[in-house]
Write a structure and sequence with these properties.
By secondary structure, this protein is an alpha+beta fold. The chain has two domains: 7-91 and 375-385, no CATH class; 143-367, no CATH class. Helices cover 25% and strands 24% of the residues. The chain has helices at residues 71-75, 146-158, 175-186, 211-218, 223-231, 246-249, 252-257, 272-275, 292-297, 307-316, 346-353, 374-385; strands at residues 7-13, 16-23, 28-35, 41-45, 51-57, 63-68, 85-86, 93-94, 99-101, 106-107, 143-144, 164-169, 191-195, 240-244, 265-270, 301-306, 324-329, 340-344, 358-360. The strands form three sheets. Strands 11, 12, 13, 14, 15, 16, 17, 18 and 19 form a nine-stranded mixed β-sheet that branches. A six-stranded antiparallel β-sheet has the order 1-2-3-4-5-6. A hairpin with a 5-residue loop joins strand 4 (41-45) and strand 5. The protein is elongated.
């Protein structure tokens, strides 16, 4: 007999699955998969928008209901709960680092990070599967909105509570500066610290130059970025500006103390000064320079790393011996790629963001990817456009 050979191809967009195609020696079949807020594939459609299968899940991934056009179509479904493959023989879902057993509501492998999130090394997303997901089997850092950050910050300042932000940047990129300007425009923090290794302790920035002009002078930026600066220009004219990192980062605590202990501030420094706990090779600095935000005030300081910088450390690695906790913050104003990771000590992050703050691994490749909910809508829009008639 001449047996048909079948080949499956899956189109992934970021961490999402848009379509899955199968091809045999007779015809092509395309399956468009629509997901829930947890990226679980619930509805499959063909290229004529006809339903192929529908699946509803129990909280931990077991199938509560599955229906379809016929048994063959249902059996061909490959990606299931939270978008992961399920082994039909064992019933286990594969997450990369370990397997999830839906009927046990537990992982079958222990957490390789140890007891950083409790003594139970097999618990799945801290028993909260309706809110969290774990794309890699390593972590489940929560995601909060930009609006929540702004509201939370201003509320703390109103009640005279300390909260300082340290933004890490690539000195040749404007990403960190843009994040700083967004915070300046939306929060009531009025003190700014800029990295300047040639400054003397306590040195103020040039007094006849407003903050925006100062950033424009020292940062090589594109025309598009300049337009972003101009949008907030009128909101950032009067600020108390000081330098940090004076004399080659040999006076870290002194620089911060000279700003004044009663003030809340935003600092803009090189990313290594918040993402590493060892000095950059070839530089002679004091021990408080890495990570500067933790050594100067671990209780009230929080670090911010843009998605761009997180990807940099995923590629090049880093050294961080102290356990960090973090949360993802969604894209600001809907600008793609403007999401960032907030880092701090466990006590500080849990105080500010509750259980959304979770352990961040030293190797950021083991950190779950940022999951913007807006991408789900984008996929639906793209799918709908396939059937739009001109």
């Amino acid at each position: 007999t001449n047996r048909a050979k079948q080949q499956n191809n899956t189109l992934h967009i970021s961490t999402h699955i848009l379509s899955e195609s199968s091809k045999d020696n007779t015809q092509n079949h395309t399956r468009y998969q629509l997901t829930s807020h947890l990226q679980s594939n619930t509805l499959e459609l063909d290229d004529k928008a006809q339903t192929l299968s529908y699946e509803h899940y129990y909280p931990y991934g077991g199938t509560a209901l599955i229906a379809g056009r016929d048994k063959t179509q249902v059996q061909q479904k490959r990606y299931r709960y939270t978008g992961k493959e399920r082994n039909d023989s064992s019933g286990l879902s594969y997450y990369g680092a370990r397997y999830l057993a839906p009927w046990l509501t537990r992982w079958i492998n222990p957490d390789v990070a140890g007891a950083v999130d409790g003594l139970n090394l097999y618990v799945y997303v801290e028993n909260n599967p309706l809110k969290y997901m774990d794309p890699t089997g390593n972590d489940k850092v929560g995601t909060i909105s930009w609006h929540r950050i702004v509201t939370h910050t201003n509320k703390r300042l109103k009640h005279n509570k300390k909260l300082n932000y340290w933004i890490g940047e690539d000195h040749l990129s404007a990403t960190g500066s843009i994040l700083l300007l967004d915070l300046v425009a939306t929060t009531n923090i009025r003190d700014i610290m800029l990295e300047h290794t040639g400054a003397t302790p306590g040195q103020h920035a040039i007094t006849d130059m407003n903050f925006i002009d100062l950033v424009l002078k020292h940062r090589p930026i594109s025309d598009e970025t300049r337009r972003i600066f101009k949008r907030v220009r009128q909101l950032a004219i009067t600020h108390n500006l000081l330098y940090v990192g004076s004399k080659g980062w040999t006076n870290t605590k002194l620089d911060v103390c000279l700003l004044g202990s009663i003030n809340n501030y935003i600092a803009l420094v090189g990313s290594n000064h918040i993402a590493q706990d060892t000095e950059t090779e070839g530089f002679s600095t004091d021990e408080d320079a890495y990570p500067a935000y933790r050594h100067t005030n671990e209780t009230d300081n929080i670090a911010l790393l843009s998605l761009e910088e997180v990807d940099f450390y995923r590629k090049h690695g880093r050294i961080m011996k102290t356990q960090e906790y973090g949360v993802w913050v969604k894209d600001r104003y809907g600008i793609k790629g403007s999401a960032f990771l907030m880092l701090g000590s466990k006590s500080t992050m849990r105080r500010e963001f509750g259980r959304a703050a979770q352990p961040v691994p030293e190797n950021l490749n083991n950190l779950q990817n940022y999951q913007p909910r807006s991408q789900i809508l984008t996929m639906v829009q793209r799918f709908a456009s396939l059937f739009r008639r001109k």
